[in-house]
Amino acid sequence: MSSEHALLSARGAGRTFGQTTALEPVDLDISPGDALALVGPNGAGKSTLLALLAGALEPSTGRIERRKGVRVGWAPQRPAQYGRLSARENLELFARLEGEAEPEEAAARLLREFGLPGKASPSANLSVGNRQRVNLAIAFLGRPEVLLLDEPTAALDPEQRRRLWERATALRDSGGAFAFATQNLDEIERHADRVAALRDGRLVFAGPADEYDRSRTDTLFA
Amino acid sequence: MNRVLLLLRKDALVLRRSPLLLGILLAYPLTIAVLVGLVASYASAKPRVALVDEDNLPPTVTIGGKRFHVDRTIQQVSKNVHLVHLSREAAAEQLKNGKVVAVVTVPPGFITTLQEMVHSPRLEVQLSQGTISSRVDQQVQALVYSLNRQLQRAYIGTNLGYVNLILYGGKGSFLGRPISVLGLGRAQKVLAGMPQTAAVRNLEDFIHDARLALANTGDALNATAHPIELVRAHDRGRTWVLSANVQAYALALTITFLTLMLAAGSLAAERDENVIGRLARGLVGLGHLVWAKVALAAALALVLGMAIAIAFGVIIQVGGVTGGEPWHRLPLLVVGLLLAGGSLGALGALLGALAREARSASLVALLVVLPIVFLGLIPSEIVPPAGWASSALPFTHAFQLFRSALFDLSPWGEVAKQALWLVALGGIFGALARLGARRLLA
Known about the structure:
The complex is a heterodimer. Chain A is globular and about 45 Å long. In chain A, strand 6 (about 145-150), helix 5 (about 160-175) and strand 7 form a beta-alpha-beta unit. The mean pLDDT of chain A is about 90. Chain A has two domains: about 5-70 and about 145-220, Rossmann fold, CATH 3.40.50.300; about 85-140. Chain A has helices at about 45-55, 85-100, 105-115, 130-140, 160-175, 185-190, 215-220, and strands at about 10-15, 20-30, 35-40, 60-65, 70-75, 145-150, 175-180, 195-200, 200-210. In chain A, strands 5-6-7-3-8-9 form a six-stranded mixed beta sheet, sandwiched between helices. In chain A, helix 2 packs across helix 3. Chain A is α/β, with parallel strands linked by helices. By secondary structure, chain B is an alpha/beta fold. Chain B has two domains: about 1-40 and about 240-440, no CATH class; about 45-235, no CATH class. Chain B has helices spanning about 1-15, 20-45, 70-75, 90-95, 110-115, 130-170, 185-190, 200-215, 215-225, 240-270, 275-280, 285-320, 330-355, 360-375, 385-390, 395-405, 410-435; strands at about 50-55, 60-65, 65-70, 80-85, 100-105, 125, 170-175, 175-180. In chain B, strand 2 (about 60-65) and strand 3 (about 65-70) form a beta hairpin. In chain B, helix 16 (about 395-405) packs antiparallel against helix 17 (about 410-435). The two termini of chain B are about 25 Å apart. The interface of A and B includes residues 54, 76, 78, 82 and 138 of A.
């Protein structure tokens, strides 16, 4: 799909941390209907690329372009929430910051959809899986058109995984898009229609999933 | 602004959910207030002074024909110090172990020497080492000054009696022995009845001059005794300097410690919680984030400062300490606390941005706050570089603002000046914190 239609694009976007290059300049588009898988070994630059696309990091080189009015949801690999606040309080706070018209309702809806406890116990006391559910639920606030998910299923049980992919697929089918970083090759085959492979901070492959030669993976992770 | 309030509300909730931190925040100002109250009460308490009476002082004594009430003098002294009668040995022991701060000894023969009016009798004073001993020294000096003034009147009266004896003649006593004096007046009459030789005329001229001169002796003696007379006007200032100073230090110290550490820790905690990236992606700008911490620090300073001021006021009110009650100046304190808290919060946010981790930030804040406070305590007149350095930090300005707000009869000029300093420093530290906050995203 041409970049003119892209919802979100990286244009020569790279990032360094001090003397360390986390991501070489990358060109990448996320267009309506995309289900993009970012693959690569640990430290390849997948999380950095997602954080740049989400706007959580500023690129050291190049730029990130977002189509006007497009809303982006982002779930980082390590849950990003306030440990002293309950799941509901976290959701209500971020709903307000996202500009949700009815923050309490939005929080209640996501609590239900993600099967989260409505109790007032701090999210720091939740299980790892439940903390990840809160992390993912926050990404769905503000009714995003693009979802950026960093290894989203790592701590989820099979039922929650299924629900997550249903939601992401529904978003894509309604004209949105999602991109996810993963180490799970099955998830690429089942949920991605495009693949971007990274290694040592460089983009080494970007194209349709059916053109992505699975045998490359062995080389990639070697 | 709405986002700043949302974050502020979140921080307040997080604070409420941190029992240890909340406990410290509640206990700290109360402890400070109690300590300050005790210091103020101690400062106003009567020092315990031992009186060793080795001359068996009588209730009254007559000196130069004038009656002195020794018991009343002792009562007068007791208004300022708590006077306890002790033996020489007991007094020495209590001075040694600090139970009394001074020992005033009336040696044997004191009253007799006083009544003879030839030599000055001596009072012995021994003082302990310590800050309060200078106060006692002043009290004893004031007592001796007061006694000397009363004695001077008696001495002058006695001396004038001798002068009158010389002028008009008659019977009197000197050193307890009766004497009879012819007197200048009667001598002049005797000379008038004698043949007027040159020698007699010379004597008459001398007597005439001497009578004129001696007629002014009373005024001359009074003027010699009191070249300058100090008249004390009984008028009190608005508040007592010591308690206002102590309150100002307590307020400045408390909010400096707590706001600096809280602002530094809470900004760095946004990174520890991994939330900073979520916020920075358009939900909350880094500037808003810094503002939220500044607002948090200002709110905390207001709550803690008012708690201290009110607790302090209650303590000194109940304790009956004169002056120093902050009630009338609470509105000024509110403004000062908000500005000082905000300025310190901006500095704390800068430290938090530089340290990047909550634990490191709190530790750095603790390490930074000590020299800030110490610099502020050094008088700039003594070490000018310390004054310049502390001018660039909010603590000194906060202290001066609180002191002026609590003590000065017309505090507006000083309060405005220090408020401007705090706003300017807050602006500079806030801008630096905003720049430094980018480090939190790395």
